[in-house]
Each structure stands twice: as C-alpha cells, then as structure tokens.
Amino acid sequence: MKWHVLTPYLQSRHQAWITEGLTHHQFNVIPAAYRHDSLRARASGRDWLDFLGQSLHARREARPGDGFLTAFPPLATTTGAMKRLHLAKGPVVAWTFNLGTLRQGLQHWFASRALAAVDLFVVHSRHEIEVYSHWLGLPAGRFEYVPLGRTWRQPWLAEDESRPFVLAMGAANRDWPNFLRAVALLGYRTIVVAPPRALAGLTLPPCVELRSGLNREQCQSLSQQARVNVVPIENQATASGQVTLLEAMMFGRAVVATRCPGTLDLARDGEHALLVPPGDVQALAQGIEALWQDAGLRDRLGRQASAHVLAEFSEQAEARHLQRILDRFNA
Predict the structure, then answer these.
(1) Domain spanning 2-149+314-328: which superfamily?
(2) Which residue, 63, 185, 232, 313, could crosslink 179 as a Cys pair with Cβ 3.0–4.6 Å?
(3) pTM score, whole prediction
(4) What's the average model confidence in pLDDT over 8-14?
C-alpha cells in the first residue's frame, strides 16, 4: 500500500524517517514548504494555511486507495478535514498524536469534526487514550499506545565536575514556578533552557541562569554535562516533557521528573528516575538534593535508564510498531 507522509520536520522527499526499512508499503514524503517553529505555544493562522497546503499537496499526489500518515496533530486535523469534505478517501493514521492543551469552543468543535475522519490515532502515553477518546467523542478503540522512539546516540560529554549544575529545559507545560522555588531553596547552580516568554512574570533566583535559542545539539550537550536533569511538568491531562526525559535517560543521566502522563510510561520511580508528585516543591527539592549529593545513586539510575531506553524506546522499536499498524490496512 502507498502512504503519503506528512510531517513539518521533513523539507525534502529524501530525508530519512522511521519508515525507512519498512516492507510491503511504499512511502511518499510530502515536503513541508515551510519552517515549523516547535517552540511556538500555538499555531498561527499562517501556520494553519501551511498545514492545509501540505494536506492538499498530498491529496493531489494521491490515487484512490492510498493512505495518509501524519506525524503532527494539526496535519491530522487538516487531512481529516480534507477527508470529511470528500477530497480524499484513503485511510488516515495520525502518528505521534499529542496535544499540549485540550481547547474548547470553536477550536474543539472544528477539531472533533475533522478528526472524526482519522482511522487510527497513535499516542505515546496510555493515559491519553481515555483523554482524547472523551474529548473527541470517539471510541477508545480508535486510539493505540506505542512507546515513543528516539534515535539512539551515545553520550559524547562527561558531567561538568568543575562547575556542576542542575538543568531544566523545555517550553510546553513546564512547571517553572515550583521548579524555581525548589532550586531557590537549594542554591545550586542552575541552568534553565526556555524561551523568555515561558518564564514571563517570574523572578529568577540568583543561582539560575536562563539560556534561550539553543539548537538540539547544544541542548543535548547540556543534558550530558548536568549533574542533575529535572523535568518539571504542570500538565496532568496530556503528555508533556517526554523527549527531554527520554534523551537525558538515553545519555545515562540522573533525572528528577514530575509524576504525570508524560513520564509514567517512560520511567519507573527509583529505577530509571526519581518521580515526584505534581506541584510539590519540597518533594522536588528533596529529589534534586538526593541526586546532587549521591554519585552512586546518579550512576545507578543513569545506567538503568540508558539500558531501558535502548530496549524499549529506540527508533527501531517504534518502526516495528509502525510496520505492525500499517500492515492492518493491507489486509
């Protein structure tokens, strides 16, 4: 079966994705004719026109019976809307379906109608199956959990022992107020990587340095050099912080993370990371201090976390799940 692949992260038909190596299917990448800003809190009108244009491009290249494989929720929405308007007839699989915010009003009305045309939603948190099923008014059987995969990379930097620091990164749904309170209690050198708007209105303690505009390589370098990585999450409805957590675990670094939908499927408390209750400043500070003071604990959690990511969350494992799911549509 032929699938037209829509993602904002592929600007060329020849860029590699997890579809590489899959059998019994053909894949046609629909290049994104735009640059997606992954740090933007919500899509603009211009963004939506870009997403719609990509979906219409796929429709022009599709033949009857071809499928559409999206890897970004707005593209699932525009492709679903296209199908609802009878501009396309093939199956739509929404891979990596994750919404940072469950909006109401007109946006909910439009999303629920457009996304009703999606045949299968693939989520990376078991909790999200019930949440999205209820929000969209669709059967839970239309949603399937698949562990999030990451391209495996060996660490290339050691911890910065001369100037140790705590690190927290991210833009979406981070619990910055309680994180800043926790590190203020401890006074440890701390680096926060986030757009300035994410911390608007907050006062940074003297121990905290804000960095913005870093690329992925720079973020991964900091993750390796940090003594303690922290993933503080405020979102208890859908999954947030998964990529940041997985990459720190992949590099074998000790992590303190909020117990929430975005972390519970990735790490077991005390085995792969320290998970603390949401909104609990004292528990967060205690978790950071425990790892800061105990090199043996950091080493044990880091080694177990790295092995766990390699076994369960590799891109190869994710590709095997994709093969299994797409094969259903060949039957």
Answers:
(1) Glycogen Phosphorylase B; (3.40.50.2000)
(2) 232
(3) 0.90
(4) 91
